[in-house]
Amino acid sequence: MTTQHVASILRALGDAQREQLLAALPADTREPLARILPYPNGTAGAVMDPAIFRLPADVIVADARARLRAAARDLLYYVYVVDREQHLVGVLDIPELMLAPARERLSAVMHRDVDQLSAWMPVAMVQEHPGWQQFHALPVVDEEQRLLGAIRYQTLRRIEQETGERAPDASQLTARALGELFQIGTNGLVAGVAATASGVRGRRRNAPPDAATTDNAAPPLDEEVTDAR
User: Fold this and answer.
1) CATH for the stretch 3-194
2) CA–CA gap between residue 18 and residue 27 (Å, rounded)
3) Closest by Cα among 151, 156, 152 to 167
4) Cβ 68 vs Cβ 54: under 8 Å
5) Exposure of 36 by Cβ count < 10 A (0-12 exposed, 13-18 middle, 19+ buried)?
6) Confidence (pTM)
7) What is the pLDDT of residues 108-150, one digit of tens each?
8) Which runs of consecutive H residues, i.e. helices, occur in 24-148?
9) In the 3-class helix/strand/coil scheme, how is the chain assigned residue by residue?
10) Quick one: pLDDT at residue 185?
């Protein structure tokens, strides 16, 4: 069960029961859900993955590589660059990071013109966004341009398959969530939420959006890269 599925189930509960369930979860599970829950089904915020690889703009490339190695189990194909207030200011993919000069700051090697999605954007509009021609994941921001998460193209394909439509209908998602709730039961729901994996698997930049939806292997992180950009 994905974080997005769990959030759909929680939205169908009363406020008191939802808060009780959230309070019983470990912080590393509760915090991603707390970012998704404010956004109703059928919006970008509801289907985004809040667990993404982000770094401050003033980090140097060598340090960024070290942090990436430490987070290899949650490897993303994108490094989202933020300022001190968590505003999205740039992006680069893993091959670009590995080929960049080691002493440069991310602000010097990142792409500043970033395709991004509003958290309140309807999924139907998300599916039509031109950014899918270049990226397999697009960042999601709030009203103040603060980075919240990212949506993978694979997620949109899954939604389309599950709903049988291009744009998911909020009432359908809520009904399905209630069905899951009664089937799982409250105890099963807590266990399922607590076990929800927060691993992030990104998509390589510049791959065509109709490529296979299984994740590709990332470039080896333990090899020194000496090629020029």
Assistant:
1) 3.10.580.10
2) 15
3) 156
4) no
5) buried
6) 0.67
7) 999 999 999 999 999 999 999 999 999 999 999 999 999 999 9
8) 27-36, 44-47, 61-70, 94-99, 106-109, 123-127
9) CCHHHHHHHHHCCCHHHHHHHHHCCCHHHHHHHHHHCCCCCCEHHHHCECCCCEEECCCEHHHHHHHHHHCHHHCCCEEEEECCCCEEEEEEEHHHHHHCCCCCEHHHHCECCCCCEECCCEHHHHHCCHHHHCCCEEEEECCCCEEEEEEEHHHHHHHHHHHCCCCCCHHHHHHHHHHHHHHHHHHHHHHHHHCCCCCCCCCCCCCCCCCCCCCCCCCCCCCCCCCCC
10) 39
Residue 30 has a CB neighbour count (10 Å cut-off) of 15
Cβ proximity of 136 and 153 under 8 Å:
yes
Side-chain half-sphere CA neighbours of 164 within 13 A: 1
Asked whether 117 and 140 are in contact (CB, 8 A), the reply is yes
Domain ranges of the chain: 3-194
CA separation (Å) from 104 to 56, 91, 113, 209? Answer: 13, 15, 19, 31
